[in-house]
Write a structure and sequence with these properties.
InterPro entries: A-galactase_NEW3, CARDB, Ig-like_fold, Integrin_alpha_N. With about 1250 residues, this protein is mainly beta. The chain is built from three helices and 94 strands. About 0% of the residues lie in helices and about 50% in strands. The strands form 22 sheets. Strands 1-3-5-6-7 form a five-stranded antiparallel beta sheet, with no helix packed on it. Strands 18, 19, 20, 21 and 22 form a five-stranded antiparallel beta sheet that branches.
Length: about 1250
Amino acid sequence: MSRRATAVALALMLLLSPSVLADWAMFGRDDHHSGVADITERSIDRRKPVVSWDRGDEDPDDCSGALECEEVISWGSVIGNFSANVVGDYDRSVRHLAWVTAGQQDDEWHGYLEIFDGGLPVGSNLMWRRDLGRLEDANGNSLDSDFGSFETAFATPALGDFNGNGRLDVAAVTTSGKLHFFEPRIRWYSSSESYEGNGEAWTTWSNTTGLTVVRSNPAVTELDGGVDIVLSGLNLTTDKAVVMAFNGDGTRLWKFEADGTEVSSPVVLRQGSVSRKVFFSAWDEGSLKVFGIWGSGASSGSPLSDWGGADGKNVGQAADPGDGNLHPLLPSLVLADLTADSGTEVLVPRPAPDDESDARLLVYKENGDAASGWAGGYALDGGGDLDATPAVGDLDGDGDLDVVAVSWLDPGIGNGEETTVWAIGPDGLLLWKAEYDTSSSGGWDDDEHAIASPLLAVIDTVNGADNFDVLSCTTPECHVFSGPDGDPLWNVDLSIRNRDNSNRIFNSPAAADVDGDGLLDLVLDGGVWSADLADLVARDGDITITDEQGDSATEVVEGETLTFYPVTVRNEGNHDAQSVLIEVRLDDPANGALLYNETLATLSSNSVQTLESFDWTASIEGNYQVWVVCVADPDTNEEVRYDNNNGSRSLTVRPEHGAELSAADSTKNADPGGSATFSVILRNTGVANDNYTLDATLPDGWSGSWPANASNIASNATAELLVMVEVNASATAGEHVVTLVATLQDDTNTSFSLALKVNVSQYYGVALEMPVGAQRVLPDTWVSYPVRVSNTGNGPDVFDLYAFSDWSANIAVDGSPTSQITLNVGEIGVAELRVKAPADSGWNDMHNSSFTATSQGNSSANASVNASTSVGQLMALEPLRSALPGENASFPLQAMNLANTGDTLQLEVIEAPAGWELTLEPSSLPLAGRESGPAWLNLTVPHDATSGSSHELRLRASSGFGTDEVVLYAEVLPLSGLRLWPLEGTSDRYWLDGGQPGWLGLEVVNYETGTLEVTLANASLPAGWSITYDGDPDWSKSVPAGASSSLNVTVTPPQNAPAAQTTWLQITASSGTLQARFDANLTVNQQFGLDLALPDRFALLGNVSTAVKFNITNAGNGPDLLELNLSGDWIADEMQLLSLDPLETREIAVLTNPGLVEASTSSALSVSVRSLTAAEAGQTVAESGTLTLIASGLLPASAETLELAPGESGSFLLGMVALHSDGTLRLE
């Protein structure tokens, strides 16, 4: 928080507390004397304000004496809210002003404490007046001449709820030192909008100080827990400056005396909730001294040693207050967090030391040391003397507090005196200064002294809405300067309000929104100055509506004609309003039905105008608000505020027939199974007697009783109806609504209803189910026990979950560890009790664990279940699985060889539901010693399995170590909605011949509680395929709840469908948003055929590798996978797989070598080929043959035949091999 924000917050903490109830509670506004006004919604800005009212605006015939025309004779005014003190019908949203004025009584001048309404004009705004006695000092000497010469004034009144009863009190210190506390009793007359104006009080109390209090002001603060007051004055007998503290009941708390013949107003430093310090200055024999006093605690009233103890801190010379050329007023100290030093500093304004010198500003830390940047203080060079108390606030919006001081200088030429306004930053450097010279016609120097303290407020929002501007007043003018730069904004001349030598400005200004219009108002001397704007007002009380008989109308019969007159509107602002449109509307002031409008060319400031009379027929029953709205032309008017531009009156138009149901207590509490009784009032809102039939709508399962009729009910008469409701024993906790309906017997289409509410109390309950209560577990392994937690209470609940086990145990929900579970009414949640067997546990070691759930709503609602865990060589990782009929489920298993040497575990299912498809993988599991391995049991739930049933499966694991059994549980989930089941003989794959139909059987089952309109559709078959349902291309049927309908589905592929093509068939059954599907694969049958083309014999060179070639042909209509087998003495036996497209011929080359054999030696090559695709389809398609191979020593290596022309020659290329043992080759 910035220092500026801190200072404002500290001030507001006092000013806005319930014990203060004030906007400007004392001199300087707060007990720090900051001089800062609250920031209002809008401000005056740069248009010069005008006077709203002025108690000093008088011009008596005789102003020869100074007091005749002085309105305010206290050093300042205060602003507060006395609404709680008012007797009468009082609803004014304004603030109230208080000051002291003078009046003669038996040729003696008296002081009078007065309180004024901030928003009413002179003549009706005096609220309260109390005589404070003669103008005299503590010794009884008259002070009339001192008041007339500016040497004396009453202390500023102080506001606070001193006795703590909620009413605002005012404390006034007289010049003779009497401290009065008044709790004004103010009488208000709403009809004439005026106050009685006497001095009646709810209570008063007082104390006597023995001091003369003429140049100081009390501070309202908090010293000992209540609202207290601290004041200063002079003991003229002992020449002592005295400070006293009093609590709210007038009891003196402490007193401090110091040498001095002049004393300043005290300020109070509040630290935390208990520590308080009081500071003031005093003039003593040419020196200004500053004193610090403990304001609270055991040392209260004792001096602070940091500030010179009882002798005070001498801060330099100051001129004698009795010097005729200088005003004898000591400005007050100011407390603020100014500098970068920690804590609050004390700002000391030191007047000029003599007639020729200037004043100086000094700043000290709380311990009395000079603050950073202020070692020598700041000299107001050329500014002269200083009587006004400085103000402290943020002038430039930088978040730091700045100091504003006002000095005055008599230049010695003529009677004029100059005022200088100084703005000084927190570092002791000048921000700006501004001068102005005022001149009064009286010829007195003193009346131009700048005695009034400056005031800081957000006046001009153009230069920023978060920095303060400066107001300074010196007779007869008040000037405003821009906070950031000191530029003059405007000034007002109060001399035209008879303020000159005969009505001088020496009291300090105050500021707040005193008239409740949202804009800042300035309290200058005895008047209030406000923005120069119009303020259009329409008040509720200014709207008069009369019926056909001329009586005031608030409730009329449907169809009656009403007259609106008089309807008046007001301009309570200070500026005329032009072209004002007045609208009268129903219900909505902006968009409601327009009843009448009238335009006023001019609505003068502070005037009232009446609209022309007009009539309106109330044609529709109902309760209406009639609004009168002032709409000002925005191009020609600027208003102070807009939220008061409309007023309204309530108007009820009653029908011929009507009723209203009401209950003083329309909400009752009841227990489940209990009852609730309501007393309902039926009022006939029509104008004729009527009869009504009564009925009620109850929640399901509830019952009740009430009168059947209400007969002969006169207009506006009532009848009491007792409605008793019986609450269902199983009702859920919470609010339930019973609707009572009254129907006109003469018009059953007209009825009226009332909602009665029953809050059903909550009871608590919990149930636990552990489907698997015993399990086997491997050593050093976690095992999980699912637990179903049911909320058996009648309202939402949170259950604390606990596990009890010597083995490691915890609880989890949705896989995450937890200590609680939240369930709605009837909801079942699943938790897991997880137990871990110790690493050193042995076979058949057993341990019992428990699981407990306890309701947080009622700890007596709890339940427990137990689990038995034993160590074995096979365990189920998930012993409980759930599946819908027709779905698959898998149980993960874990096995372990508990022996130290290798072994094989044999797994088998020894118990299972009949007809279920089961697969246990593997059935044999070889494991090394202490080794673990996985296994699975997979199953398919038959589609006709009973929904909601639970089935036990038992597995056995056998090894050389021993035999274990594990129990598994399969739950069949309840079916709902719509299902398509295959009938017996129907599978998910079919083989079809092209152009030939295939058949499958389906069953449509309705698992809902009502009849379903079911339609079958297929969206998966390719073009050319056809499908029929019981011979029809479309199928739609009503299937009753719980029933099934069987049908035959025929699918026919096209004649030319490619062989071996597989097509996806998906049949969808639909009923509204419900759907079910059946899927199958359809494959077109393949025609198979093989051709093997082998030569009978084949000659080849001996001992030479030669490729023997032959052909194989796929004679079928689809691709085929062939298995080719070759065998013979001259080849390496082999098997090949060949993939052939339809009608494809493949040449096969087989490498042969007879070796060194005799010529003409022969050998057989055996060839066989078969179709594997045909074998998969259940057919045998194969071919085989034998080829004779003959070895030779001479074979042509090229063509064996030559064609030659006559005379042409040719040649043969021959291959020769010597096959004889002698190694010779003869060619013959």
